[in-house]
Specification:
This protein is mostly helical and 213 residues long. The chain contains eight helices and no strands. The two termini are 22 Å apart.
Length: 213
């Protein structure tokens, strides 16, 4: 991507990762856990959610090296499952909240992109409409990628916690113990190309769905 496109993409990435984390905290609060609220993280103010490296430095490095992609993350929202009114239901809903938020954002930005593509915003002029189109399209792609990636049932991704909630409590310890190996497995899948092959079909389907393709 060129510099202008990359600069437009960074806010799209920040919106996606920050609202992903906010959704976890909001759902935890609804399930009876006020930990995120007590920590000042149940807010749409982006500053408390920013991870200096994952939200700012890493995306900037990707731009400087001319990477074709941007990647990053926000600070994980603190959650205490023991405060949920129902541990299993709370764990499931909190786990899928981030993925649900990213899919909802992809739908919204896809709708906005289609408005631009249909010419409904042309009265703003191309200097405004073109950056908006890039922002909306990148937002759809980033949110779809985050949703698909986090839905993978490998610890510590959200999909593994959602899957764990369907098992008896006696198996939960095994899930938590497996988390230390999850990152290594994801790294191996990434560098062998397996992760890309797993993620590409659902990403392509969802992107085309939300973009009206």
């Amino acid at each position: 991507m060129d510099l202008r496109e990359a600069i437009i993409t960074i806010p799209a990435l920040m919106v996606a990762v920050i609202l992903h984390e906010y959704a976890h905290g909001w759902m935890a609060y609804k399930m009876g856990d006020p930990t995120a609220k007590e920590a000042g993280r149940l807010t749409l103010n982006p500053i408390p959610h920013i991870d200096p490296f994952g939200t700012l430095i890493l995306p900037a490095v990707f731009i400087l090296i001319g990477s074709p992609i941007l990647f990053g993350w926000a600070k994980p929202v603190p959650i205490n499952p023991l405060r949920f009114r129902d541990l299993k239901i709370g764990t499931f809903l909190v786990s899928i909240a981030g993925v649900g938020m990213n899919l909802m954002l992809a739908f919204i930005f896809g709708f906005l992109y289609r408005l631009v593509d249909a010419g409904y915003l042309d009265f703003f002029g191309q200097k405004i409409v073109l950056p908006l189109a890039i922002f909306f399209a990148k937002s759809v792609l980033i949110n779809v990628i985050l949703a698909v990636f986090n839905a993978i049932p490998i610890p510590p991704l959200d999909g593994s916690r959602a899957l764990m909630s369907f098992f008896s409590f006696k198996y939960w310890e095994a899930f938590y113990r497996f988390e230390m190996y999850g990152f290594l497995i994801l790294t191996l899948l990434l560098f062998t190309g397996v992760l890309g092959k797993i993620m590409y079909p659902p990403i392509l389907f969802l992107y085309n769905l939300f973009m009206g393709g």
